[in-house]
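Table S4 entry, Nitrite reductase [NAD(P)H] small subunit.
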Amino acid sequence: MSWTTICSVEALRPESGVCALVDGVQVAVFMTYDGELHALSNFDPYSEAYVLSRGIVGTRKGEPTVASPLHKQVYSLVSGRCLDDETLSVPVYGVRVGNGGLVEVSLEQRVEVGV
Ligand code: FES
């Protein structure tokens, strides 16, 4: 398992995301209101644009979500499923706070969602 350091946890703001390049993959890292971290692909498959890190963090039925800033499709931060269009999903990656309060992402801990 390999982890890539992204930034310090203090650099993240609750309810917002940052984009990081991990081994050539654009990853959107989010902190929710309660301080939980989530990492998804930055690619919005609906708009076909790398924009999810700029999305609006929220919840739907208690599930943390991000809404694409372009066409507002809502994706689960937990499963990567699009909650507005069941044919769409985005990869979910491993994210943790490692030594020294640094946020780390692992592409290997990727969750594949069946659609
Ligand atoms: S996030 Fe790039 S256009 Fe809105």
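The CA atoms of residues 9 and 25 lie 20 Å apart.
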